[in-house]
UniProtKB/TrEMBL annotation:
Cellular component aspect of the GO annotation: cytoplasm; nucleus; proteasome complex
Subcellular location: Cytoplasm; Nucleus
Species this chain originates from: Callorhinchus milii (Ghost shark)
GO biological process entries: apoptotic process
Keyword list, A-Z: ANK repeat, Apoptosis, Chaperone, Cytoplasm, Nucleus, Proteasome, Repeat
Pfam families membership: Ank_2, Ank_3
SUBUNIT field: Part of transient complex containing PSMD10, PSMC4, PSMC5 and PAAF1 formed during the assembly of the 26S proteasome. Stays associated throughout the assembly of the PA700/19S RC and is released upon association with the 20S core. Interacts with PSMC4. Interacts with RB1. Interacts with CDK4. Interacts with MDM2. Interacts with RELA. Associates with a CDK4:CCND2 serine/threonine kinase complex. Interacts with ARHGDIA and increases the interaction between ARHGDIA and RHOA, hence promotes ARHGDIA inactivation of RHOA and ROCK.
Organism taxonomic ancestry: Eukaryota, Metazoa, Chordata, Craniata, Vertebrata
Residue stretches of each ANK repeat: 23-55, 56-88, 89-121, 122-154, 155-187
Alphabetical list of SUPFAM superfamilies matching this protein: Ankyrin repeat (SSF48403)
Function noted in UniProt: Acts as a chaperone during the assembly of the 26S proteasome, specifically of the PA700/19S regulatory complex (RC). In the initial step of the base subcomplex assembly is part of an intermediate PSMD10:PSMC4:PSMC5:PAAF1 module which probably assembles with a PSMD5:PSMC2:PSMC1:PSMD2 module. Independently of the proteasome, regulates EGF-induced AKT activation through inhibition of the RHOA/ROCK/PTEN pathway, leading to prolonged AKT activation. Plays an important role in RAS-induced tumorigenesis.
Protein name per UniProt: 26S proteasome non-ATPase regulatory subunit 10
Length: 210
């Protein structure tokens, strides 16, 4: 168990709790990454900042969300972590939860004010990510939290374009049922139907035209 040794070291030298390594990461970053909830609790009880940023602007919440550390995400949110913090790629913790299929974490983030339409530096939203990866329940969850279906990334693609391109037929159908347009063109002047393969385009047209 790492906690007793770490606790002893920190109590002897308080500065260890906030010391940063060469990547500007603190003990809080590392304990979130490794999933050591007891160390996270210990550090936060000592009063360390909850949202320090490393050299690429990842907060402990970004790391915990990306690594799938549900209990730690819950603790960080309860301690006031910024759910819409952005790193150097413009990504929020929700972007990582969406692309890595972390359903419970995404739910906690959304219920605590995470913006479902946050755009990263490529203008990609969590819905773009979940749709392209085929994370059906996450697509559903984002839509329940009123994620916009027709936002376009830098390539002009909507989440539906990406779902069609990756042959995510269930996700594509759900998006169209929830109002995603089959007519928006991307930068290559292609609609989602023109990107769709096999019989998917026809299915989507049927849903859209009711």
């Amino acid at each position: 168990d790492a906690l007793p040794i770490f606790r002893q070291e920190v109590l002897l030298n308080k500065s260890l709790a906030v010391t940063t390594d060469q990547d500007n990461r603190t003990a809080l970053h590392w304990s979130c990454s490794a999933g050591h909830k007891e160390i996270v609790d210990f550090l936060l009880n000592l009063g360390v900042p909850v949202d320090p940023k490393d050299d690429v602007d990842w907060t402990p919440l970004h790391i915990a969300a990306s690594a799938g550390r549900e209990e730690i995400v819950k603790v960080l949110i309860a301690r006031g972590a910024q759910v819409n913090a952005v790193n150097q790629n413009g990504c929020t913790p929700l972007h990582y939860a969406a692309s890595r299929n972390r359903y419970e974490i995404a739910r906690m983030l959304l219920e605590n004010g995470a913006n479902p339409d946050a755009t990263d530096n490529l203008h990609s939203t969590p819905l773009h990510r979940a749709s392209s990866k085929g994370n059906y329940r996450l697509v559903q969850l984002l839509l329940e939290h009123n994620a916009s279906t027709n936002l376009q990334d830098l390539e002009g693609n909507t989440p539906l374009h990406l779902a069609c391109d990756e042959e995510r037929s269930e996700e594509a159908q759900l998006l169209v049922e929830k109002g995603a347009s089959i007519y928006i063109e991307n930068k290559e002047e292609k609609t989602p139907l023109q990107v769709a393969k096999g019989g998917l385009g026809l299915q989507l047209r049927r849903i859209a035209e009711g």
